[in-house]
Design a protein that fits this description.
2 domains, binds adenine, five-stranded parallel sheet, alpha/beta, EC 2.1.1.228, Trp Operon Repressor, Chain A, 9 helices, two-stranded antiparallel ribbon, 17% strand
């Protein structure tokens, strides 16, 4: 998969792309990332990428022309892209949308600034306006990193088998069960006995119950979206 990031802050991506799984995934050839400076496509000698809003008001608005020219330059440089504008006004990202995006050969991620982007970008140049949550970031750059991280880890060959995403929260539709590792006891805080029992059936049942219980307490909205088995209902009643 190919990610092209259109931004006025390409520096933002240098370190994150060179650590951890983003680096590993790139080195394995599962995906590649290119960053493009929208400023390089500004049409005037001052390289202006934003301007005051028509109709008045606070803040600046990102101009349509530099984004248009940047896209026009970048689009032919690879397979046909799916173009995403990061913005707090967009469709909310969730795991199923990440899975859809992971099917694309190529994503172009346009990072807007928080005051706004000329609406003609959204109307004419993008396939999807996307928000990573109901809060306002100072720009689309951290959101682009979130999208890349969540999408690329679903690509074949990025995670090892042991890290497979299939059993994770949101892939299963509910939150994950709690995890523990050594020591068995720390400051008197004990690991649940059942996990030390070696009884795999009992452990699986306990994990399912804890996952359901945690989801019921923390995110009851998730339980409304899935169908619980009779066994699950019994576990919740226990
Ligand atoms: N830009 C500013 N806030 C954002 C958000 N919540 N999601 C995506 N892009 C943004």
């Amino acid at each position: 998969m190919l990610f092209d990031i259109l931004t006025i802050f390409p520096e933002f991506f240098v370190s994150p792309l060179n650590v951890s799984i983003l680096r590993r995934g790139r080195e394995k050839g599962a995906f590649d990332v290119r960053t493009w400076d929208i400023r390089d496509f500004a049409q005037d000698k001052h390289k202006t990428t934003d301007d005051r809003p028509y109709g008045g008001g606070e803040g600046m608005v990102m101009k349509v022309e530099p984004i248009y020219h940047c896209l026009k330059h970048v689009t032919p440089l690879g397979p046909s892209p799916f173009v995403v504008l990061l913005s707090p006004r967009g469709r909310l990202l969730d795991q199923s949308l990440c899975e859809e995006l992971a099917q694309k050969k190529r994503l172009i991620l346009i990072c807007g600034r928080y005051e706004g982007v000329d609406e003609r970008v959204s109307e004419h140049l993008v396939d999807l306006e996307l928000s990573i949550g109901d809060y306002v970031l100072s720009g689309g750059e951290p959101a682009a990193l979130v999208v890349m991280d969540a999408v690329m880890r679903l690509l074949p060959g990025v995670l090892g088998c042991a890290e497979s995403p299939e059993n994770e929260s949101f892939s299963t539709g509910i939150l994950e069960y709690p995890q523990y590792t050594r020591p068995r006891e720390f400051l008197g805080w004990k690991v649940p006995e059942v996990l030390l029992s070696g009884d795999h059936k009992k452990i699986a049942k306990w994990r399912r119950k804890e996952a359901l219980r945690t989801t019921l307490i923390r995110r009851p909205d998730l339980l409304e979206k899935i169908e619980l088995s009779e066994q699950d209902m019994n576990l919740l009643d226990e």
